[in-house]
Amino acid sequence: MIFFDQTQNERGRLDSTYSQLGKLLRENGFDVEPYTEYMILPRKLKEASAIVFGCPNSSKLRPPEIDTLKRFVKEGGGLMLLSLSGGDRGLMNNMSMVSKEFGIVFENTAVKDARNNAGMPTMPIIRDIVPHPVTQNVAEIVMSAACTLRVSSPAMALALTSAVADPASQPVLAVAEYGEGRVICIGTYEVFRSGGLKNKGNRTLALNAFRWLCGTESLVRPSEVTAPTTAAPGSQAVAVAAGVQIPKDFEKMLRRLVDTVLDLSKGMERLSEKIDGVQNNIESLRSQFQAFAQKTQEQLGMIIPAGEFRTEKEAEAERIKSDIAALEREIQSVEQLREHVEERHASGAMSKDTYEEQIAKLDARIKSLKRKISKKKKDLKSLEGE
């Protein structure tokens, strides 16, 4: 999932200027949505792999939002910031307040190249490109109305203006890895507008950039740019059969998923223990109420329908049945995840070591859940036989 922010009056918008970009990404397995919830909130960003700011215009992020974005990247999110000629000063935004944390600043410049351009000096063709997954198979990029970038560690410049451009030999595209996440900064949002995407290099750059940003394999084959895959988004089996690159970090993502499922299971067990404690308190109160009802009836002749409450054994039996049903549902979920791991291994998309590690964890969990169900059923049988 990629969010395209629309809270900062961006020029790059999914419903207009970036409609072709949205279509290209969807055709290649991404989900894209506009982000419209003001302010930028951590709980909302958890739904996305990356967020894009397509040239905010006369709008500035607030300090809490900037902190949220930095934390989002540090914890594994992807962030793309796109500007325009003039940089922050010309656009009256504060993108550099975010990007400088990663070693990148948008400068108050306007790139022109009288010799290397796509028809106008303000439409320079960038050919000084540094090898990187983001620039794989990219020979040239058209960058209209771009500003330059000031790049320092930990960032890395990937594309620079020519030696005869103004400014000469300056970065217009840079990337950085920060914590568990990744950042891409580009001097112009027009690189991904409909006009820019007519250039093959720009289209390849777009797919490379978003795959790398989301932590997936970034290599784009020429056939993908000219004829996007028709496989359903997220269909890994189809992707493998078609020879399309599998996400490089998928095994890491799958490990996290398995660990999350197991951690969630443990959390549910702790919650169940707390619920049992509450149930015991309820049973104690019920017993006290029944005693009160009986005394009231004996002393005042007032009848309180205490008999409508379930007995302690009945309540305990219902609780055990509920626990068994919950455990059975959890087994189904873990078994489905196990089937997915089996499919990944069978397709050749998962190494043997990773497969054996994940299967061992899942089998151990299933075995543990079955033991608990068996014990619960024995307790229920014993209770009903009393």
Report on this model:
The protein folds into two domains: 2-231, Rossmann fold (3-Layer(aba) Sandwich), CATH 3.40.50; 252-385, no CATH class. 47% of the residues lie in helices and 13% in strands. It has eleven helices and twelve strands. The strands form three sheets. An eight-stranded mixed β-sheet has the order 2-1-3-4-12-11-10-7, with helices on both faces. Strand 11 (171-178) and strand 12 form a beta hairpin. Helix 9 (250-300) runs antiparallel to helix 10 (312-346) and helix 9 packs parallel to helix 11 (352-385). The chain is elongated and about 100 Å long.
Mean pLDDT: 83
Helix fraction, binned, reads 40-55%
Task: For the largest sheet, list the strands in their spatial order.
Answer: 2-1-3-4-12-11-10-7
CATH class categorisation of the largest domain: Alpha Beta
Low-confidence stretches are 227-246
Structural class: alpha/beta
Q: From the alpha carbons, calculate the radius of gyration and give it in angstroms.
A: 29 Å
Count the beta strands.
Answer: 12
- Write down the domain tally: 2
CATH fold topology of the largest domain: Rossmann fold
Tell me the CATH architecture of the largest domain.
3-Layer(aba) Sandwich
- H-E string: EHEHEHEHHEEEEEEEEHHHHHH
Count of DSSP H/I helices? 11
Shape descriptor reads elongated
**How much of the polypeptide forms β-strand, as a percent range?**
5-15%
- CATH superfamily of the largest domain, by name, is Class I glutamine amidotransferase (GATase) domain
Can you summarize the main beta sheet?
8 strands, mixed
Q: Cα distance, first to last residue?
A: 55 Å
